[in-house]
Amino acid sequence: MSRVTRSGKPSEARTRLLGTATRIFYAEGIHSVGVDRIIEEAEVTRATLYRHFKGKEELVLAYLDLADQGIRAQITGAQAADAAPADNVRAVARAITEGIRSPGFRGCAFLNAVAEYPDPDHPVHRAVLAHRQWFLETVTELLGRVGMEPADAAGRHFVMLRDGAMAAGCLFDPELVGETFLHGVESLLTAGGAAPRA
Description:
Layout: H1 12-28, H2 35-42, H3 46-52, H4 56-78, H5 85-100, H6 109-116, H7 123-146, H8 151-168, H9 174-191
Pfam families: TetR_N (PF00440)
InterPro entries: Homeodomain-like_sf, HTH-type_TetR-like_transc_reg, HTH_TetR, Tet_transcr_reg_TetR-rel_C_sf
DNA-binding region: 34-53
């Protein structure tokens, strides 16, 4: 069970551990990084690590939970209550391209993690699927508001475009990948009857 301070906030040591693990897991992969390195770089003791996390698996799940929270905030923050539905879809797509263009971009944390945890019964694999289900439902709802039918097919199409952009964004020119992704989303919206971008 993770420890929190009396103020209800996570302890500084837990925050440091999770921040260190997040940085290294995302940049280098999960299996290749041992807890000894995380302990060393976070400048904590082994006892401190195990006081906050039962083991590496719980730390990995906390890393994915943090990534999930960040993406949820990104998607929610991109939308405006007074915007046209199609413009909110475009805003979400732009937020995704901003991530692709950011320094140190290494692809989707969830796609990277599931490649290392292929067993569908593993908690990490299940966490990835839960995040992806949320993302699919979210974009499907957004596309449904645009009036696209069937919205579930459009949602799957959007997720496929996003997955391709996330994979390509760390291999090729992120500016070009971002432009291609936005063009694909615009084509999806136009095919569904949305007014072209102004």
